[in-house]
Amino acid sequence: MAEATQSTSFAPKDPPKLNPPKDTPLSLSHLAKCDGTTPSYPTYVAIKGTVFDVSGNTAYAPEGSYHIFAGKDASRALALSSLKAEDCRPDWEDLADDKKKVLDDWFTFFSKRYNIVGQVRS
Fold first, then answer.
1. How far apart are CA 100 and CA 75, in angstroms?
2. Helix %, strand %, coil % for the chain, to 5?
3. Predicted confidence (pLDDT) per residue in 59-71, tens digit
4. For all residues of the chain together, what is the average pLDDT?
5. How far is CA 27 from the centre of its chain?
6. Are 61 and 43 in contact (CB under 8 A)?
7. For residue 39, with 0-12 CB atoms within 10 Å meaning exposed, 13-18 middle and 19 or more buried, which class applies?
C-alpha cells in the first residue's frame, strides 16, 4: 500500500504523455552539451545514470533556478537538496539511507514528468 501512495503522491496534476523510456547510451561529455545553453541541443538532467529530457521546463534553462543541474548527473546534489555546483556529480552510493531516500523520491518525481532519453555510460 505504501508503494501505491508514494506512486500517486509524486504524480503531477496533469500527467504528461510520456514516451517509452529509451536506453540510448550517452557519455558525460555529450550530457554536458545538453545544458540548455546551445539551441541545437536539448536540455537534460541525469539522476542515478538515467537521463531525463527537461527541455520544456524553463527552471532548467540558463536563467532558471535549477539550471545548475542541467547537463549533469546531479544525483548527489538532489539527494542533499543542494544547489551547489560542487555537489552536482553522479556519486551518491556513500550517502546515508535518508539521503538515498530523497534521491529515490527525486527519481520518481522526474520519471512522472519527463521522458527518459538514455543512460549515462562511461
1. 9
2. 35, 15, 50
3. 999 999 999 999 9
4. 92
5. 15
6. yes
7. exposed
Residue 5 predicted with pLDDT over 50: no
Q: Give the strands of the sheet with 44-47, arranged side by side.
A: 25-26, 115-120, 50-53, 44-47
C-alpha cell at position 78? 538532489
Count of Cβ atoms closer than 10 Å to residue 65 Cβ = 11
What are φ and ψ of residue 65, in 5° steps? -70, -20
Provide the pairing of β-strand 115-120 with 25-26: parallel
Q: Supply 53's cell numbers.
A: 529530457
Which residues have C-beta within 8 Å of that of residue 102, sequence separation ≥ 6? 78, 79, 80, 81
Nearest to 61 by CA among 81, 78, 82, 39: 39
**Which cell goes with 85?**
555546483
